[in-house]
C-alpha cells in the first residue's frame, strides 16, 4: 500500500488545504497473532512519540476507526473524554490535540489505514469542516477511498 503514493506529500497538502495543526497516517502492520496499527507519517507533530504508539484494533483513535470502518469527529476533546480516560488515546495526549477527525482509508473494500486531522484548540474541527473532509477524501486519496465509501 505504501509504495505507490508519496504519503508525506499527501499529508502536507492536507495540512495546507484544511489549515490543521496535525495530520497523521496510521497503517496496519503484521504482528504475532494479529495486526496492529502504527502512526507512520505525520506533519505538524510536536515530537516523535506518535511514531512509537502501537495500537490494536479497537484501541485508541486509529484502532476504533479501523475496527468500525467509520469516520470519527470530536469537536472538543475536553468535553468528549474525561481526563482519566485520555491514557487510552496516546496521540491526543502526546500531541496536545483538542479537536479532531479521523477517517478510515479503504482499499479493495478493506480498511488499510487511518487519517487523522487535528487541532490544538477546542472546537476548531467543526461539523462543516468534517463533512468537507469526508466529501473530498476520494479526491485526496483516490486509490484508497472510493466515493461510495465516503457516503458511509
What does the overall shape look like?
A: globular
Specify Rg, calculated over alpha carbons.
Answer: 14 Å
Q: What structural category do the secondary elements indicate?
A: alpha+beta
Which sheet architecture does the biggest sheet show?
Answer: 6 strands, antiparallel
Low-confidence stretches: none
CATH architecture classification: 2-Layer Sandwich
Say which CATH homologous superfamily is assigned. GAF domain
**Broad CATH class:** Alpha Beta
What percentage of the residues does DSSP assign to strands (E)? 25-35%
| Share of residues in helices | 25-40%
List keywords for this structure.
152 residues; single chain; 6 strands; 28% strand; Beta-Lactamase; alpha+beta; globular; 6 helices; 6-stranded antiparallel beta sheet
Amino acid at each position: 500500500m505504501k509504495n505507490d503514493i508519496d504519503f508525506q506529500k499527501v499529508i502536507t497538502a492536507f495540512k495546507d488545504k484544511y489549515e490543521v495543526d496535525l495530520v497523521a497516517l496510521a497503517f496496519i502492520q503484521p504482528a504475532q497473532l494479529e495486526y496492529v496499527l502504527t502512526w507512520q507519517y505525520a506533519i505538524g507533530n510536536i515530537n516523535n512519540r506518535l511514531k512509537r504508539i502501537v495500537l490494536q484494533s479497537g484501541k485508541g483513535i486509529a484502532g476504533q476507526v479501523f475496527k468500525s470502518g467509520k469516520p470519527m469527529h470530536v469537536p472538543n476533546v475536553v468535553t468528549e473524554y474525561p481526563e482519566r480516560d485520555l491514557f487510552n488515546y496516546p496521540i491526543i495526549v502526546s500531541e496536545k490535540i483538542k479537536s479532531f477527525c479521523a477517517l478510515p482509508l479503504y482499499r479493495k473494500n478493506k480498511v488499510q489505514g487511518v487519517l487523522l486531522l487535528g487541532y490544538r484548540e477546542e472546537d476548531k474541527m467543526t461539523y462543516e469542516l468534517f463533512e468537507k473532509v469526508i466529501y473530498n477524501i476520494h479526491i485526496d486519496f483516490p486509490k484508497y477511498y472510493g466515493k461510495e465509501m465516503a457516503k458511509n
